[in-house]
Amino acid sequence: METILEKIIHQKKKEVMLKESLISRKQLENSELFKRHTFSLSEQIKTSPLGFGIIAEHKRRSPSRSSINTSLLVQEVLEAYENAGVNGASILTDNSFFGGSLEDLLLARATVKLPLLRKDFIIEEYQVIEAKAFGADAILLIAATLTKQEVNSLTKLAQNLGLEVLLEVHNFKELEQNIDTPVQLMGVNNRNLKTFEVSLENSLSLVHHIPDGVVKISESGINSAEAIKTLYDVGYDGFLIGEHFMKTNDPEKEVKNFIHKICQLIPKKNESKNQNLRHETPR
């Protein structure tokens, strides 16, 4: 039987072929947004006055949860995130399994000045060009779905277009295989993409193997300030959070409360620099 991930990739290949038959790469490159100067997600996180970064996600549903929130408009959610002070936003653009769309990315770009991450199962160059044309500032590349050569070529194309790359890994093998890829951000997904089970141990076990200079992001299953504190203490710079914020009808209030709770546990940036709070371990 196919795993969930295999089903998604199988469907994605069909979708990309169909899209490219209707809208050419040249048409995408001629779009107005393709010419825009992008925002840096990594710099927003590194220079966050909070001392940590929050990437808040817009996600309607997922294979592990049929419906998270379909009542709020993209514009409402993104305005709420920006008003709450997040450092960037992740926009799910997969429709078949997550209920997202490129229109969501387009509306998000028209609504806020935040750096936007296109979160999808990117397997072809066409999707990278598409991301730039629809207003993304960064793209997600999932190591589990790509060869080392594909990661490198897609990263090179993205960076030539002014897009940053968040490379997502799930285990040491994926991380080691792509350790030299010159990405700005590396994320550890706490969700097993084959079973969709979640464990923060994934992030805890891999953090010290991520290269210095790369912005470290922990993804999935993060729903408490205490979890953020634990991950921050071992070296994570930012946290990608979706379901926890999306399941409420007042995301601005939820995000503000969440950040407030974190700040009670983590000192401000200028304070933390002078304290031995982060337990870095040499690789």
How do you describe this structure in short?
This protein is an alpha/beta fold and 283 residues long.
Please provide a written account of the structure.
With 283 residues, this protein is of the alpha/beta class. Helix content is 41%, strand content 14%. The protein is built from 13 helices and 8 strands. It has an 8-stranded parallel beta barrel, surrounded by 5 helices. α8 links the parallel β5 and β6 (185-189). α10 packs across α12 (251-265). The termini are far apart. The model is unreliable at 272-283 (pLDDT under 50).
Question: What is the fold's blueprint, element by element?
Answer:
Blueprint: H1 4-22, H2 25-29, H3 41-46, E1 53-58, H4 74-84, E2 88-92, H5 102-111, E3 116-119, H6 125-133, E4 138-142, H7 148-160, E5 164-169, H8 172-177, E6 185-189, H9 201-206, E7 215-219, H10 225-233, E8 238-241, H11 243-246, H12 251-265, H13 269-272
Parallel strand pairs: 1-2, 1-8, 2-3, 3-4, 4-5, 5-6, 6-7, 7-8
Number of helices: 13
General shape? globular
Proportion of residues in extended strands: 5-15%
| End-to-end gap | 38 Å
Strand order of the largest sheet: 1-2-3-4-5-6-7-8
Can you write the helix and strand succession as a string? HHHEHEHEHEHEHEHEHEHHH
Mean pLDDT: 91
Instruction: Give the class from helix and strand content and strand pairing.
Output: alpha/beta
Helix content: 40-55%
How many E strands? 8
Which ranges are low-confidence, i.e. pLDDT below 50, for 5 or more consecutive residues? 272-283
What composes the largest sheet?
8 strands, parallel, barrel
Radius of gyration: 18 Å
